[in-house]
Amino acid sequence: GRQYFFYDRFDELDFASIDARAGLAYSLPKLNNLQLRADYLYNRLTDEGSFDAFFTSHALAFGAELPFRIGRAQQVSIGTDVSLNLDSDPDGPGRHDFSAFLGYSVNLTRALTISAVARVIARNYTDSDRTDVSGILAVSATYRFTKWLSANAVTTLVTNDSDQDVFDYDVANAGVALSFGLRF
Q1: N or C: which end of the chain has fewer CB within 10 A?
Q2: Are 87 and 60 in contact (CB under 8 A)?
């Protein structure tokens, strides 16, 4: 996917992100539908309006999610994710992420789903003596037009606490996406 980031007061910081993910997922029905994932992740950051990269990253990600159904329309999930940096250019921003999350999802209609996820992430930077701890709250609404076409609106609130104070921040983001899916 491609995302664009625009800043209100510092437009010289505007950038675009290209992300690709490929992997496997496995469900264990006898263990309450425990979901296990293993993915390869690629990230490329470019100046807004350009395809010339100022940062690229390759990582392996592993995750486990345990869902708990509440009736037919609701679900609570708990889980954990680990992302291990294989290579980044330049090296400095490369990091390993370790996170835990709690999610809630409700189908308001057959086509409309509202979801919320709270996540805590510890980030260990590979080329420096820096560790950050982030808290993220994401709320989204998805409307499915068909099995393969949906629209999504999302907002996120993030706080970051670093052992290097210059990297402490709080931010709110909002976005809209149109998704096409293929199931087989």
Answers
A1: C
A2: no
